[in-house]
Amino acid sequence: MHPPRIILNDRCLRGPRTGVGHYVAQLLDHLPNEAPDLEIFPFYRNVLARNRGFSARPTHEKSLDRRPPWRLRRAALNLYNAGFRLAGRLKRCRLYHEPNHIPAPWAGPIVSTFHDLSVLRHPEWHPPDRVRWYDRDLRAGIGRTTHFITVSEFTKREMVDLLGLPAERITVIPLGVRAVFHPRPAEEVRSWLADRGWPTEYFLYAGTIEPRKNVAGLLAGYALLSTFMRRQTSLVLAGVTGWGRQTVNDWIAGHGLVGQVRILGYVDDETLARLYVGARALVWPTLYEGFGLPPLECMACGTPVITSQLASLPEVVGNAGLLVDPRNVRELADAMNRILDDPGLGERLRSEGLDRASRFTWQRCARAHADVYRRMLPNSIIGLQSRVGGASERDTRRLPRTIAPP
After folding, report:
1. Among 80, 98, 212, 245, who pairs with 103 as Cys (CB 3.0-4.6 Å)?
2. Are 327 and 302 in contact (CB under 8 A)?
């Protein structure tokens, strides 16, 4: 008997990897071993990218600021969704997993992953067309979803509070650490950095450069370090260009940090791993996060982490990092000074971070996803019970609007 086939919307793999892209890629890598009784059908990889030189690890940078017009992207999305549904019917897929919030129309059961609800909480942090998309399609997407996966207890609480969803329809599955992120010899990494003309003493920010990541607050906190400290320890920003990035150079100039801040742009996984190992600390003062892969990955490399005490970060980092109020730039500066002044603190955070990170694996994440798939498959008694009393029209009318309809 052929194993049940689940269609996975892997469209996010077509561009530079951010958090959702890494999530999907890791599921595709680990589900075959962790759930051999299921077959995963990744639509984009198997249909659209087969003859287009698909690469699992894109190494180019693609600006998220230079977005095509919304009407053009909407038409392309509708065409993509039509092809997705056709492929699902032809391949006789019995379940659809949407890994990025809003599922396309689908005739069968749907599992949707919600990573965060920042578009609802803070629409000002997102491009206006993305906000309109949520305002237009979120209700319908929730109404057609059978069961929800999210990556933290924080986001589950947000889904219950903001979306009015019953807690039993949401399964929390934390993310994991990719194999490339592990400790490496310090002298080897220092030599590697020097060969590229990059700083060998630095604080690191890694991630998409966009408003909610609070890069402006990071730069303001770094600017409070003494001139001597800044000359000795640079600040390195590594990440794909995101919405709102055009102001970063202005912030650097405005704080008098020209020559002390290095912007690397998008870097591949191997480069990022070495940057983690070589840093004095990762400084990641995000204002709102559904999970937060960079702090977890950095801890797995044996490097201290300074991050936000807000949202999901305390769940991920626990006591293995320095948690600060990201809105208080003096706290950020004090945390960076503590790392520079106290070698014992750095050693403690290194040891505790390695232990903490070891608890988060993609194998465990994949197994938990497979459990959800099995429960939601048609003909599953548990799945049938879970689907009874799904979101009704009355339920979805209670969802908040992000903005007024266009």
Report:
1. 98
2. no
List Cβ neighbours of 55 (8 Å cut-off, separation of 6 or more): none
CA 166, CA 391: separation in Å to the nearest integer? 9
Cα distance between the two ends of the chain: 50
Helix (H) or strand (E) holding 7: strand 5-8
Q: Which two tokens stand for residue 134?
A: 């949520």
CA-to-CA distance for 272 and 321, rounded, in angstroms? 19
Question: Which DSSP letter does residue 2 get?
Answer: P
pLDDT in tens, 280-310: 999 999 999 999 999 999 999 999 999 999 9
Please report, for residues 79, 90, 107, the alpha-carbon distance to residue 84 in angstroms, rounded to integers and kept in the order given: 9, 10, 12
pTM of the model: 0.88
DSSP letters of 134-162? HHHHHHHHHHH-SEEEES-HHHHHHHHHH
**CA atoms of 135 and 45, how far apart (whole Å):** 29
Amino acid symbol at 309: Q
Total count of residues recorded for the chain: 406
- Bridge partners, residue 307, by sequence: 284, 323
d(CA 16, CA 32): 24
Q: Is the pLDDT of residue 62 over 60?
A: no
Positions of E strands within 22-151 = 39-42, 95-98, 110-114, 147-150
DSSP symbol at 179 = T
User: Quick one: pLDDT band at residue 181, thresholds 50, 70, 90?
Assistant: very high
| CA neighbor of 209 nearest in space, from 114, 269, 125 | 125
d(CA 88, CA 374): 18
- State the DSSP string of 331-354: HHHHHHHHHHH-HHHHHHHHHHHH
